[in-house]
Give the backbone structure.
Amino acid sequence: MEEQDIKKSTKKRWLWAGGIILLLGLYQSLTPLYREQEKALLSQIRDTVKESFPEQTENYAGTIGLFPYAAKQGGLREDNQRQVAVVLVHGLDDPGKVWQNLAPTLVNEDFAVWHLEYPNDQPIVESALLFNEELRKLRSLGVHHLTIVAHSMGGLVSRELLTSTTIGYSRALQQQQVPKVEELVMVGTPNHGSQMARFRILSELRDHLDRLLKGEALGLGFVLDGAGEAKIDLLPGSAFLTELNSRPQPEGVKMIVIAGITAPWSESDVADWLRTIDESIGENRSEEVQKIGTVMKSMSNGLGDGLVTLESARLAHVPFITVPGTHLSMIRNLTVDSERVPPAVPLIVRLLKSDRTLSSE
């Protein structure tokens, strides 16, 4: 009798497991057909929560906006107009650690550093609208020019800000209502989307765990910072990305893309090796060498930084630089006490210092 009960219990567990797997499979197969409907539903849920809990919503609102980086400065100096302002824009579900290496380095190089905090799970368009409002406040503080350094989805928020006719950044700039964005540096930005956005629940949990450990958790933070609409915007072929990538690049803004490579070689490494091999073995084997190079480059393109492929990061007619590292390790260390220098950090500093020198000449 006990043996029969065990068999029944086992069979029941397998049926439940099979049912769950089937439901997940159906969800994954059907949701691409109803992305925008899902996004609208998630936004309705978020709006309902905000209306139902006004006090918590107000408390959360105090945590978003543009803030001066507080490690070594409490705000702009009195001669702030002679400093170059840099605005740092993080990506999806980032708990604030992504700038732990770059921000203090920029401060030490005498840049005025600001960081944008926004509900990073909400629709990207809404985040860009918030960014625009915060830039108006920055202009009122005497900041007339700035550079944006954006990580991951932050690059999409920045591109939406600069190119959306609805937001009207160009009109506001002509009316001297916002600072002029001189340059946009995008680090690991999925300009053509990332399939890994489907698994944003993992990064969402990391984000709220980190806030909980720092005593910053809000009971409804997992909804107030967005109900997951950004995940839908980030998927390849999304309505948001299709619209964004159909626009021309912003005029008068220097743009640079920095992408990470988890493969043990970069595209420039491959090119150097091919050149050396060609010189060694002669032209009669050149075709075979090129085939090897094509395979090695495709491996680098496919891997990218582990979350964003090189092809997704590329933008037509925009300078493209690769550095070794994953989506996070190329821009920050995993631990605060690590003495390693993330490869994108000195590169960004050199780019910004070079532009500062040119603008002062």
About this structure: DSSP finds 15 helices and seven strands in the chain. The first helix runs from residue 2 to 30.
